[in-house]
């Protein structure tokens, strides 16, 4: 099994490119999109259509409900499962999406966590009844690490408490003694380079299309079913519609806000992709589309499962 990654800012054409390459190289697709992982968030996340997903098997989409927690360790476990499936089915793998932080975590790996038992789990569960007190305790003993965690982030606070209870170390001490190990040793990464003016136009068109597809109705259904509390309800495209529903902005202002905030996100993604990876190729979409992506055959005519670019 061979694998590669396609990354780029939102609305840069990643999904279409990955489908074209997957068809040519006999590959499955693993999405790295922090919003596409959720069921029922379809228009806001700009997922590939069900028809497109029926052509090539996709993973990493529609796995969790919007009120369920998603984190990088969940994604890494998902990657391991998908890799096993690809090896079993003799398929290549294309990792594609805009949340490049998850890709970086695959390359860098995660630190192992200390073993816990039922007594420790119960003790931490009781402490979490006062989340503020737990956060203050952790901040007092390890402010450098905890300054990057929000006081209402129950999932990560629980994780840090478990580390403290099981190891008798602060989170920083534990991670210093247990550095991360890479999950993927070598990976070719292709980043779609897009002019910001062109990208802004693409974002505006996509936002208008989302409105035509029923963006407002989708957000209304999500709010009624899940309230505004889940982290997923703070996503770009949802927040701006909620402001419109609250009467704070007009529909035109809502569309402009979504486009502006999406463009700001795209700029951050471009910066991240250019600074956080070493083994990476930066190229415009049309250049990547014109490459000879293909599987190769050996001397006997048997397909060699490789993702090749000539």
Q: What letter string, H or E per element, gives the SSE order?
A: EHEHEHEHHHHHHEHHHHEHEE
CATH architecture of the largest domain: 3-Layer(aba) Sandwich
Number of domains: 2
Percentage of residues in helical conformation: 40-55%
What is the terminal separation in angstroms? Answer: 19 Å
Determine the mean pLDDT: 92
Q: Can you give me a brief rundown of this structure?
A:
The protein contains 14 helices and eight strands. It has 310 residues and is an alpha/beta fold.
Task: Describe the protein's architecture and organization.
The chain has 310 residues and is of the alpha/beta class. The protein has 2 domains: 3-110 and 182-309, Rossmann fold; 118-177, Histone, subunit A (Orthogonal Bundle). The protein is 51% helix and 13% strand. It has helices at 14-25, 50-55, 72-89, 100-108, 118-127, 131-141, 143-146, 154-167, 171-177, 196-213, 215-226, 239-245, 251-275, 285-290; strands spanning 3-7, 27-31, 58-59, 92-97, 188-193, 280-284, 293-297, 303-309. It has a 6-stranded parallel sheet with strand order 3-2-4-1-5-6, sandwiched between helices. Strands 7-8 form a two-stranded antiparallel ribbon. Helix 2 (50-55) links the parallel strand 2 and strand 3. The two termini are 19 Å apart. The relative contact order is 0.17. Residues 296-301 have low confidence and may be disordered.
List keywords for this structure.
310 residues, Rossmann fold, Histone, subunit A, six-stranded parallel beta sheet, globular
């Amino acid at each position: 099994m061979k694998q590669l990654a396609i990354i780029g800012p939102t609305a840069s054409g990643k999904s279409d490119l990955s489908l074209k390459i997957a068809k040519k190289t006999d590959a499955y697709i693993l999405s790295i999109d922090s919003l596409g992982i959720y069921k029922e968030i379809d228009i806001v996340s700009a997922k590939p259509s069900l028809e497109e997903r029926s052509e090539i098997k996709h993973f990493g989409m529609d796995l969790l409900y919007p009120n369920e927690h998603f984190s990088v360790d969940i994604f890494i476990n998902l990657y391991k499962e998908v890799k096993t499936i690809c090896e079993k089915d003799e398929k290549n793998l294309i990792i594609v999406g805009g949340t490049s932080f998850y890709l970086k975590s695959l390359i860098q790996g995660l630190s192992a966590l200390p073993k816990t038992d039922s007594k420790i789990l119960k003790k931490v569960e009781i402490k979490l009844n006062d989340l503020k007190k737990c956060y203050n305790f952790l901040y007092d003993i390890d402010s450098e690490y905890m300054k990057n965690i929000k006081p209402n982030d129950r999932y990560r606070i629980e994780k840090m408490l478990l580390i403290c209870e099981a190891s008798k170390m602060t989170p920083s001490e534990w991670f210093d003694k247990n550095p991360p190990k890479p999950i993927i040793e070598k990976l070719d990464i292709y980043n779609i380079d897009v002019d910001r003016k062109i990208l802004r136009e693409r974002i505006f068109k996509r936002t208008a299309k989302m409105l035509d597809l029923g963006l407002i109705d989708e957000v209304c259904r999500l709010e009624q079913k899940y309230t505004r509390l889940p982290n997923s309800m703070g996503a770009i495209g949802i927040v701006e519609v909620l402001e419109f529903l609250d009467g704070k902005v007009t529909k035109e202002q809502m569309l402009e806000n979504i486009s502006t905030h999406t463009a700001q996100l795209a700029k951050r993604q471009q910066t991240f992709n250019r600074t956080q990876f070493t083994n990476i190729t930066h190229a415009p979409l049309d250049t990547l589309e014109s490459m000879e992506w293909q599987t190769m055959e050996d001397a006997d005519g048997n397909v060699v499962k490789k993702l090749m670019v000539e």
